[in-house]
Structures are given as C-alpha cells and as structure tokens.
Specification:
Shape: globular
Order of helices and strands: EEEEEHEHEHEHEEEEHEHH
Number of strands: 13
CATH topology of the largest domain: Rossmann fold
Strand content: 15-25%
Radius of gyration: 22 Å
Low-confidence stretches: none
Helix content: 25-40%
Oligomer: single chain
Mean pLDDT: 89
CATH class of the largest domain: Alpha Beta
C-alpha cells in the first residue's frame, strides 16, 4: 500500500497582522507552521503504515523553507519527502496548486501505485477546501471529503470504508481504491515526534522537484494559471470592547441584559 500525504506550510494565524495602508499580510517576523488539518492527515497516514505496512510519501508545494514541514512529517514516520518548489509555481490559487500537486502524485503513481491520497480538510490561510478535490479530479480518482473515521480497509479486495461528518448526520461509504480523502480534526490525535525521529528527519534528503521534472505548461501554473486573484485583504471592522452578559445557571438575566443592550442601540424593535 502506498499513501501520499499532502502538507502545507502556513503562517501562524494567531500572530498575523495586516498592514493598514497596503491591506496586505505583514509576514516579517511571523512564524510558519504545518497546517493544523494536515497534521491529522499525516497521523492518519502513519496509522496506515503501522496497521498495513504502507509506504508513506509526504508532498508539499512551496518555497525552499517549506522543507521544514516535510522534515516534521518525516520525524513522525513518513518514508519519503518531496518538495515541489519553483518560481513558476509562485502565486498559485487552488486551481494551479491542485494542477501541480496532481501531476506530481501522478508521477509518483508511475513509480509505485498510489492507493490513498490524504489531505487536511482545508488550510487555515485559505479555508477553501478545494485543493484535495482538485487533486482527485486531476488524478481521476474517487474523492472522499470530511472524513472523520476510517472504519475498515480490505487489502485483498482493495476497498475502504469510511465515515463522513456531514451537517446533521454521518454517512458511511465503502469504495474501491484508489481514493483521495480530506480529513477532519476529529479523526485522530496527532502523535509527537520521538528523539530518534527528529534526528532521522535532520539527516534525511528532501527531494526538490521543479517544473523541469514536471514539465507543466507555464500558462497553467503559478500566477498565470490562476483565475482567482486576491484584490485586497482586510481586517473586519468592529466596535472595540465586548460586553459580558453573565454565565452560570441564571440564563434569564443574561438574555434580558442582551435584549436591553440591543434595544438601547436601536438594533431590535419591540
């Protein structure tokens, strides 16, 4: 069994601020982390390795310093790490990103058939949840989104049964491999890397793939291949300060205080 897990380096959103003049993110001094949803995807990939002896390849697209998130994945247990890095990939939206990732995984499939592609549900910087399904479309494989439990895998019949977390209920689906799955945070609790794992990750060679290997049309990747353009980023305006309405068992008084405040501001009318 061959598992490919996609990881992304994202800015730590708890420390991101916006330039009020240019309306762009201030990146200076902002730490970068592994996208939290992707840590669950890596953990799930390692669980496939532990249970079924799967070979796990971690793939990321980004600048050279994105190598750090791949080394973290290796420290937890992935067997191979590939960074897709090229100036031609820069400025990509979800369409162009899934184009590059999809072709890279296709190349891996030619080397060793890929059974499962794992992605986090979404990234915390874009929140679109589009890249995973985009990869599935480019690979022409089944997509399973919002997965919060892998129920069973039949390695002989090459099938997988999963549970999807929908708005008001859960859905159990069984499909043939290969598949692409996007996972919810509830699917597992990510493990911490061990000391030997960290030492191994420091020594491992992270493969760098540029467009010289992928040979994609420059018009279909990066900024030229991105129909989505971000015009500006801004922080939503809000009044300063919050009003605490009270906690505990006396909910009636809290509700009355809330309505009184709304009436004072002429937001509601009786």
């Amino acid at each position: 069994m061959h598992i490919v897990v996609c990881v992304k380096m994202v800015p730590d959103t708890t420390q991101v601020s916006i330039d009020p003049v240019t309306n762009t993110l201030i990146r200076d001094g902002v730490p970068f982390i592994t996208n939290p949803y992707d840590t669950n995807a890596v953990e799930e990939a390692i669980r496939f390795k532990d249970k079924y002896g799967a070979f796990v390849t971690a793939v990321s697209m980004g600048p050279p310093n994105a190598e750090s998130v791949l080394r973290k994945a290796v420290s937890i247990g992935t067997d191979r790490a590939i960074l897709l890095s090229d100036r031609a990939f820069g400025g990509a939206d979800t369409l162009a990103t899934s184009t590059v990732l999809g072709l890279a995984i296709k190349k891996l499939n030619e080397e060793q058939p890929v059974d499962i592609v794992l992605c986090g549900k979404q990234t915390i910087d874009g929140d679109t949840a589009q890249v995973g399904p985009g990869i599935a479309r480019r690979m022409n494989i089944t997509q399973l989104t919002l997965v919060d439990e892998v129920v069973s895998v039949n390695t002989e019949k090459k099938t997988i049964r999963i549970r999807r977390k929908l708005e008001n209920y859960h859905e159990i689906i069984e499909v043939k491999l290969p598949v692409m799955m996007t996972v919810e945070r509830e699917i597992n609790t990510p493990r911490y890397p061990t000391v030997p794992g960290r030492l191994h990750a420091d020594d491992v060679r992270v493969e760098i793939w540029s467009n010289a290997q992928l040979k994609l049309d420059p018009a279909t990747i990066g900024l030229p291949g991105s129909p989505t353009q971000v015009r500006r980023i801004f922080a939503p305006e809000r009044e300063k300060g919050e009003i605490m309405m009270g906690e505990g068992p006396d909910r009636t008084k809290a509700v009355e205080a809330c309505f009184a405040k709304l009436l004072d501001r002429d937001i509601v009318h009786v």
